[in-house]
Design a protein that fits this description.
Layout (H helix, E strand, L loop, with lengths): L1 H20 L12 H10 L3 E6 L13 H16 L3 E2 L22 H17 L4 E6 L7 H8 L8 E5 L22 H10 L31 H5 L13 H23 L1 H17 L8
Parallel strand pairs: 1-2, 1-3, 3-4
Helix pairs in contact: 3-6, 3-8, 6-8
The structure holds zinc ion.
C-alpha cells in the first residue's frame, strides 16, 4: 500500500514537472525571466516585434494612447499565434501635426531616429536578428520606411522589417458608410470596441465634427506638412457614430492574422535570406571597385 502511494506521488511529481517545463512562454519581453528569454529567442528564431504607437488626441471619445493600445493588442495576439518576443510599450514616433492638441508628445526628429536606432541595436545585441517594427499610427508611415532604408548605411548583423498600417479592405469586410474615416473615425472606433471597449466614451462622439474642412486647394502633385491641419484642424477625421463591433471584430481578426503571417515569413527561410543578402551587400560596399560590372 505504502509503495503504491509512493509510486503515485512520484508519477504526480513527474507529471507536474513535465507540465511546468512545457509551460507556454510569455510573448512579452518584460515578462520573461533571463533564462526563459534565451529559450524564447530560440522559439522565435531570433525574431522580435517592436509595435510602435503614439500619444495624440483621438477625437472627443477615445484615449490619447489609442494607436499604442490597438497596435499592441494586434501584435501580442499575432505573437500568440506565431511566437516572437514583443518589445514593451514604445510610442516615440512622428506627430508634429498634432502639437496643438492636449496630450501630444512630439519628440524631435533627431531623437526619434536615434532612440529607434538604439532600441533596435540593443534588441539585436540581445539576439533579435530579425526585427519587425509594427506601425499603429498614420504619422509614422513615412518615418519607418526611411528608417528601414537607412539601416543599409552601415554594416549590421540584423535586419529591420516594417509592417505598415494594415490593409483592411478585404473581401467580406462589413460596410462602414464613413467616407472620411482617416483618424478616430468609424474604423478605429470599431477596433477599440474590441481591444479596449472600457475606454470608449461613445456618448461624446457627436460633440465635435470629423468632417474634411478642405481649406487648402493645391494640385495633388504637391505635398506639404500642413495638409492634414488644413483638412482636420481638430485632429479628428471621420464619423465614429458609424462604428460597429462587427466591423471591429472583422478588422482586428484580419490585422492579427496578417501580422502572424508576417512573423511566420520573417521567422522562416526568407527572413534568413534577407540577412544573407544584407551581409552580401555590406561586403560589397567595402570596396565597390571590386563589384563586377
Ligand atoms: Zn489612431
Amino acid at each position: 500500500m505504502y509503495l503504491r502511494r509512493v509510486v503515485v506521488l512520484v508519477a504526480f511529481l513527474l507529471c507536474s514537472l513535465a507540465t511546468y517545463s512545457q509551460e507556454k512562454l510569455s510573448v512579452h519581453w518584460e515578462e520573461l525571466t533571463a533564462s526563459d528569454f534565451i529559450k524564447g529567442m530560440g522559439d522565435a528564431h531570433n525574431t522580435c516585434a517592436l509595435p510602435i504607437g503614439i500619444l495624440e488626441k483621438h477625437g472627443p471619445h477615445m484615449p490619447i494612447g489609442t494607436d499604442l493600445l490597438n497596435v499592441r493588442y494586434a501584435a501580442l495576439h499575432a505573437a500568440e499565434k506565431e511566437y516572437v518576443i514583443v518589445f514593451p510599450e514604445y510610442y516615440f514616433g512622428q506627430i508634429f501635426e498634432a502639437r496643438q492638441e492636449p496630450g501630444t508628445i512630439a519628440y524631435s526628429l533627431d531623437l526619434q531616429l536615434k532612440l529607434l536606432q538604439e532600441t533596435v541595436n540593443e534588441m539585436a545585441r540581445n539576439g533579435c536578428k530579425k526585427i519587425v517594427i509594427i506601425n499603429g499610427h498614420g504619422g509614422n508611415e513615412s518615418l519607418l520606411p526611411l528608417f528601414a532604408q537607412a539601416q543599409l548605411a552601415t554594416p549590421k548583423d540584423f535586419v529591420v522589417f516594417v509592417y505598415g498600417l494594415p490593409r483592411l479592405e478585404v473581401p467580406g469586410r462589413p460596410a462602414k458608410n464613413d467616407s472620411v474615416d482617416m483618424h478616430a473615425g468609424s474604423s478605429e472606433t470599431s477596433h477599440m470596441m474590441v481591444t479596449h471597449p472600457e475606454l470608449l466614451k461613445m456618448d461624446k462622439v457627436n460633440t465635435e465634427s470629423g468632417r474634411d474642412q478642405d481649406r487648402l486647394k493645391l494640385p495633388d502633385s504637391l505635398y506639404t506638412g500642413i495638409w492634414w491641419y488644413a483638412k482636420f484642424p481638430d485632429h479628428f477625421s471621420g464619423d465614429p457614430s458609424k462604428a460597429t463591433r462587427a466591423l471591429g471584430e472583422f478588422d482586428v481578426n484580419t490585422w492579427v492574422n496578417s501580422i502572424a503571417d508576417a512573423f511566420k515569413a520573417v521567422k522562416g527561410e526568407q527572413g534568413d535570406q534577407a540577412i544573407r543578402l544584407q551581409n552580401e551587400y555590406f561586403e560589397k560596399t567595402i570596396d565597390p571597385i571590386k563589384t563586377k560590372q
